[in-house]
């Protein structure tokens, strides 16, 4: 009898094991394929991000000098303490560091504690009282959390809402100091140094340096602040720089981030600092942080050393600037002693080289009430030269004459009898003074005849004037005159290398009487810088030059008392050549000369003794007040604006000037602050030039601080009550 062979299950089980292993390996290979093919690049970038991170460290900004190489804006170094958080640093770790740091430094000033918000206090309270914070959530809410109906953020917001004022009052002064430090530490970005405290004392700097091992992420460094050698002089033009706390402005955040800036970098916010940000901000130091996968910094390597920003040499002459500002202050104070000057609060002066466009002085002063002291003070308002505009009056009559020549409305030597113009249904329009007689173009400028300009404008508009009859003028005459005026810079941007330049306002109506007003500067508005460009164009024979505030860009050097080599020197830029024959400009220049050098000229009394032989044109415009006190009136008061344009010497002009005194007085008669300021300013320019040529004043030496004259201060105090009215 044959025995049956016993079947074994081993091969079957072994096959099942092999099959299971095959399936698992297939799944593993598939998963690796997905990781490698689908997510490979993402994981590669993540590893690179966490293992090799480049950080840019800010450097000091470039300096600014005046045209004689006197420092205007510099950087003052100060000791600082920074904190750099790694990508894995959590809030509890930062709290521990903040507690240790609070024992070594002081950060409990009024300004520091003001920055601590109620939300910061609540966050800190939760950190300190985790169990009590947990108890503020009801069981039902915890159940909803477990059921995923509430998330972590919702739970945290409930805790914040339920913290009482009494509980917040539990925070001690020491807690608030720790919180002030923690707040600065948390406001930074991963691997970017964040300033915790500036202006650190030597003692604090030393003790923190000695204890860096127990303060992970903390470091001691040197920070910088902008230093202004002339205090508030020209401050409105130099511009502002953001601080490290605010960092990049929100409205330009993407713009700066795309150019390699960090969020807490300081940038120029206005005027020169903003306009030349790319030059001033410098080349940032690059540091590579080697980190592990947890984001902890293992090593730091310097890739490139930073270099502070390039330096700017301005066209401004600070000796002249200071002197002109003083003149404006004194003459404004003097004018305020005159009757009907309650609305007068500002004056402006521009000095410009008519051959290059370089602006030697950009001065403006405004009378304001100091918010802190309540006293009346004169603050810098240099920017008002190109950010505010006014009716300027007869100063523009040179452009009117040249427009007449260019359009064929008048010819050199054309004469008109100065008698009032009367359009049907309107009041007579006349000159400021009766009995001026028959005038040609040159003498019309000399005595500032309105009627001559009216007749010129009527001819430009192809009108047929008859006394007390309707007058029709071509509406296109406004465009004709504006287009020609713009060739001088009037009613258009001058092109100055500063932001926020104002064009001025153009009247919207086209009535015939308004064209006559336009011809004497009493319709459209212009800035004082436009006046300076206009008179420079007349002085040099028709070249409209771009005004410049920056003369050179220079390479930065390490030594404070040295100036680096020139990288870029800006050449004069002719924006356009005014249409007109040389002999036409000769006629207007001669008219301007007669204004100041011949008896009967409107500025003769102020300038006839000047040995530098000036030429120019005065302006008085009837206008409506639209200043800071406008809200006090139902209807805007009628005021007089005073202006003056000039250049000197007449034969070979080297300096051009524009003076603007808006809202000088109410009524038909008043002071002559425009002429008083203009005479003193030109005297100062030529006196300063003479001293330098004689060697009595070395432009390379620092300017001694000018002491404030008691007279000006006393006058300002006397007008304090009047300015409130």
From TrEMBL:
Recorded metabolic or biological pathway in which this protein acts: Cell wall biogenesis; peptidoglycan biosynthesis
Keywords: Cell membrane, Cell shape, Cell wall biogenesis/degradation, Membrane, Peptidoglycan synthesis, Transmembrane, Transmembrane helix
Broad class of where this protein is predominantly found: membrane
Reactions catalysed according to its record: Preferential cleavage: (Ac)2-L-Lys-D-Ala-|-D-Ala. Also transpeptidation of peptidyl-alanyl moieties that are N-acyl substituents of D-alanine
Annotated transmembrane regions: none
E.C. no: 3.4.16.4
Keyword flag Cell membrane: yes
A Pfam family this chain is assigned to: Transpeptidase
Annotated region (Disordered), positions in chain: 693-725
Domain Penicillin-binding protein transpeptidase: 348-682
Subcellular location: Cell membrane; Membrane
Keyword Membrane set for record: yes
Biased composition, class Acidic residues, residue ranges: 705-725
InterPro entries documented for this protein: Beta-lactam/transpept (IPR050515), Beta-lactam/transpept-like (IPR012338), PBP_dimer (IPR005311), PBP_dimer_sf (IPR036138), PCN-bd_Tpept (IPR001460)
Membrane topology: Single-pass membrane protein
EC main group: hydrolase
Penicillin-binding protein dimerisation domain residues: 58-301
Family as reported in the entry's similarity comment: Belongs to the transpeptidase family.
Name the record gives this protein: serine-type D-Ala-D-Ala carboxypeptidase
């Amino acid at each position: 009898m044959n025995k049956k062979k016993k079947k074994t299950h081993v091969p079957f089980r072994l096959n099942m094991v092999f099959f299971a292993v095959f399936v698992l390996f297939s799944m593993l290979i598939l998963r690796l394929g997905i990781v490698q093919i689908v997510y490979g690049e993402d994981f590669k970038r993540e590893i690179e991000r966490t293992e090799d991170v480049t950080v840019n460290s800010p450097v000091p900004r470039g300096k600014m000098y005046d045209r004689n190489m006197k420092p205007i804006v510099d950087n003052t170094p100060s000791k600082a303490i920074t904190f750099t958080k790694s990508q894995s640093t959590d809030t509890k770790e930062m709290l521990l560091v903040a507690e240790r740091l609070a024992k070594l430094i002081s950060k409990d000033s009024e300004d520091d504690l003001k920055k601590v918000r109620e939300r910061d206090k609540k966050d800190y309270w939760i950190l300190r009282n985790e169990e009590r914070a947990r108890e503020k959530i009801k069981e039902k809410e915890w159940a909803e959390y477990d059921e995923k109906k509430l998330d972590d953020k919702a739970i945290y917001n409930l805790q914040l809402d339920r913290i009482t004022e009494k509980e917040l009052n539990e925070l001690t002064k020491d807690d608030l100091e720790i919180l002030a430090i923690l707040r600065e530490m948390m406001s930074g970005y991963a691997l970017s140094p964040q300033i915790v405290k500036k202006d650190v004392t030597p003692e604090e700097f030393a003790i923190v340096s000695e204890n860096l091992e127990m303060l992970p992420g903390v470091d001691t460094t040197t920070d910088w602040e902008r230093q202004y050698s002339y205090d508030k002089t020209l401050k409105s033009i130099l511009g502002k720089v953001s601080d490290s706390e605010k960092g990049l402005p929100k409205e330009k955040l993407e713009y700066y981030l795309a150019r390699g800036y960090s969020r807490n970098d300081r940038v120029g916010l206005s005027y020169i600092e903003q306009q030349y940000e790319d030059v001033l901000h410098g080349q940032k130091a690059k540091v590579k942080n080697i980190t592990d996968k947890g984001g902890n910094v293992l090593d730091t390597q310097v890739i490139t050393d930073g270099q502070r920003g390039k330096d700017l040499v301005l066209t401004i002459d600070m000796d002249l600037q200071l002197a002109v500002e003083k003149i404006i202050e004194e003459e404004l104070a003097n004018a305020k002693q005159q009757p009907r000057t309650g609305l007068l609060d500002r004056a402006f002066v521009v000095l410009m080289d008519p051959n290059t466009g370089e602006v030697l002085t950009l001065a403006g002063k405004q009378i304001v009430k100091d918010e802190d002291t309540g006293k009346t003070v004169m603050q810098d308002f240099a920017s008002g030269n190109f950010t505010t505009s006014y009716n300027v009056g007869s100063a523009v009559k040179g452009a009117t004459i040249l427009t007449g020549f260019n359009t064929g409305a008048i010819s050199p030597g054309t004469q008109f009898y100065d008698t009032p113009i009367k359009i049907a249904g309107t009041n007579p329009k006349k000159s400021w003074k009766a009995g001026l007689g028959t005038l040609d173009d040159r003498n019309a400028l000399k005595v500032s005849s309105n009627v001559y300009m009216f007749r010129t404008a009527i001819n430009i508009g192809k009108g047929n004037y008859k006394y007390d009859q309707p007058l029709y003028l071509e509406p296109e005459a406004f465009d004709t005159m504006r287009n020609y005026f713009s060739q001088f810079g009037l009613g258009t941007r001058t092109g100055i290398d500063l932001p926020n330049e104002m064009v001025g306002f153009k009247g919207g109506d086209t009535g015939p009487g308004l064209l006559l007003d336009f011809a004497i500067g009493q319709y459209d508005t212009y800035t004082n810088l436009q006046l300076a460009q206009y008179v420079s164009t007349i002085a040099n024979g028709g070249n409209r030059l771009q005004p410049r505030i920056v003369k050179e860009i220079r390479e930065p050097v390490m030594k404070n008392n040295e100036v680096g080599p020139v990288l870029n020197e800006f050449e004069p830029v002719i924006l356009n050549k005014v249409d007109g024959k040389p002999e036409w400009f000769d006629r207007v220049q001669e008219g301007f000369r007669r204004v100041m050098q011949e008896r009967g000229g409107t500025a003769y009394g102020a300038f006839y003794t000047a040995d530098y032989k000036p030429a120019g044109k005065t302006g008085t415009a009837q206008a409506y007040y639209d200043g800071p006190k406008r809200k006090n009136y139902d209807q805007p008061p009628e005021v007089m604006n005073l202006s003056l344009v000039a250049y000197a010497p007449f034969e070979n002009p080297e300096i051009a000037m524009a003076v603007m005194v808006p809202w000088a007085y109410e009524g038909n008669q008043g002071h002559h602050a425009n002429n008083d300021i203009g005479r003193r300013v030109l005297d100062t320019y030529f006196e300063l030039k003479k001293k330098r040529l004689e060697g009595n004043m070395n432009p390379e030496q620092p300017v001694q601080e000018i002491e404030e004259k008691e007279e000006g201060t006393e006058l300002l105090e006397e007008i304090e009550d009047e300015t409130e009215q």
